[in-house]
């Protein structure tokens, strides 16, 4: 892996997710939808109840971005159904996954303006202060870790003041974790990376404009410490 550039890593990941989309989608139904939704509920509750310098957080005219949305289950599905968002942008670099999310959700929710952007999240470009919420679950972990920090800076720029981000990161400090055949699929080459949960609070605090509202390690399945991630809810500080 040390020989692969970030571009090559992403090209291999794109091919893998396109190839194993069916296997991943079947597996992820039980791994761990309830945890993802419980954090999403916390985020939406905060969004609706916090004192905000920006009144756009309190109406139903909000905007959301999901990075690495996969097939849209369960997060996009919940965002579209919530009645809170007038516009939703979904991104994934797997066209198979993005098309699957789009064909399931776009027509059913034509009251919400949606945009479906295929490609690497580090290449996305939005105006500053574009979104009330940004979500990226089990997806920034696929970026080489230096790019994870660059993404945090972009997320900070793209959030409106008072806006919230829900993200998770590797608990372990690992430059490159590679599995050749993830989920038992021979096309399932995988790469993960991370600074580790103990370093993340300090690194996040260095990103201009973000404060940590929630930062905690959680096991994937309650009662099991086999696989754990560092979950955060971040708030964009209003800069006066
Ligand atoms: C483990 S899946 C998670 C999908 C979804 N967020 C979920 O919670 O089930 C990772 C997703 O991130 C996407 N992904 C990985 N690297 C990406 C990148 N650099 N830009 C955009 N999407 C990426 C993959 O194609 C895949 O759909």
Automatic annotation (TrEMBL):
CDD domains: AdoMet_MTases
Any single GO BP term: methylation
Keyword Transferase: yes
GO MF entries: methyltransferase activity
InterPro entries assigned: Methyltransf_25, SAM-dependent_MTases_sf
Swiss-Prot/TrEMBL keywords: Methyltransferase, Transferase
Family matches, as SUPFAM superfamilies: S-adenosyl-L-methionine-dependent methyltransferases
Family membership noted in the UniProt record: Belongs to the methyltransferase superfamily. LaeA methyltransferase family.
Protein name, entry field: S-adenosyl-L-methionine-dependent methyltransferase
Native organism: Triangularia verruculosa
